[in-house]
Amino acid sequence: MEDADKLCELLFLWLKKRMECADKLSALAQELENLHKGTNISQVVGSVISIFGTALATVFTAGLAAPLLAAAAATAGSVVSLTSTLVETGISISTMNTATALIIEDQKIGKNIQELLQGLRERCGGMQLWAHASGGSTSDTVECEVVTLLMGALARRNKIPVSLDMLRSFNSATFFRQEGGLNSADAHRLISKAVGLVVKLGKSGIMEVSKVSAKEMVKDIGSIGMRTAVKTGSRVLVGLGVSVYDLIVSSEELVKGNQVTEASQFLRDSAREILSAVRKLKDQLNAMHEIIQKLLRVEKLVKDLGGYSLAMNEDEQILMNYIIVTCTDSTVVSWLQQPNHQTEFLNLIRFFNVNLIGLLKDLQEHQGSHVDIVIVAHGEITDQFMPARCLAPSPIIETILYTPWNCSIDSNAVYSIAQGTIRLRDRVFQNRNNNRVQFEPNPLPNRWNCMRDSRPDIPMILLRPVVPEEEAWREFQALQSVGMELDGRVIIPYIVPQALVNAYGKIPLYVFIFAAWFILIITGTKATVHLGACLGRAGSTQRPQRWRAQYAYTNDGTFMTANVDMVNVNSVLFRALRSMFD
Known about the structure:
By secondary structure, the protein is of the alpha/beta class. The protein is 55% helix and 11% strand.
């Protein structure tokens, strides 16, 4: 983050120095006017050429033009000497010295800004960025990450404790949209509205965001210190990248053409244009700061959700709107847009608040920013299919499914998954519908079924919670009182709150993963997710060819087990798993 922090500080320093440059241009314009009033035009030409042409040349050629200064003074002597002109007309040496010093510093800061910006772009270009999964161009993914790092630096500068992943999620949503979703302009408007930013009615009558886009800001920063063409004359367009030195040189050209009044006006217009560009960049940085503060509010809304509920208040609706418009996966969005699913999803967030956030904080202190999360639930597959990408959204490193399709699992295997000790060679398959001791799918892949590099579509996985009528529910309740953590891994059994049994139905695994993902980006944690659930077809149509093409499948009644070392077993957890799966 050091380069991003340096870039952030340089931007604020550059803004300050640019304002000083604008002030000095105005001062030079005023002195030019005073000079014009006090002397004839030939005196003006001689003195200004001497002042602007040779003094600045000395600065920008590291002293090589020093002899020219004396020569210019000698040449101007027939009209008016340099010294007498400065004294008599009021153009001060201090004004000129200050201007040249500011120009030198302006160019130095601009150069440093470009070097840091290029370094960030190169670094981001070598990273695996979230936007890759959103179908954006390589250029857009890099710019998105540059904005994220810069916003992170701005947050640190203002001591706002917002997660970098939260910033990345917001920027990814504004740069890219889900397939068949909103265009970039509409997305930015809705996302800004959802997060509570001010919107206004534009000239076209369309609601538009009152702040400029992040893409435009990066483009503007990229022009700082880059020398651009300066148009002389009555109208001038000056951007962030224009060289103040070039402005003064251009005014000198006007003076040479006996256009002293226009030269003065040129400097005044340039000063106004510089201030306008400075205000624009300030507005962009202020907009970023405003977004950071709003995202911190979103984080607070998540953490302050409170107890389970079947209704949504105003704050919860704001949070839900934000989640929907910033989600870049069309499959998840389609599910979330159904009103009854929104309260269900918020309760899932509450579930993770209780079962995940506290443990993540403790684990981060001992083992860094990566954790293993084991989801334990009743599961089944349907004859529908879903994108595998839904199960591995960054910062989820990987989601691992351990059984073939249409295969159940027993407590031994789930406990080994929870403990992190299961190995490929430990797999043992049996079938409850025949007398064969072992039953093994053929072919059996020599790998677990990992989602990040999976074929695009996998069978739809539905998770069903453990309910109070089950013995496992009481066992898990006892386990929650002592903490759901085993050997540095977070165990999350999907348990329905006793008072809200009827509010919970079957939930797609991708929704469960998305809720966990949202908690992870808020806490700045990366995770590998492991699923401990049966994947039997529960009466739906068999799809053996498609199942085998993606991984492997088994016949009805098959389950996977594994050998467990019973010496150091957590008896409460093992007892709960046994009553749930066996």
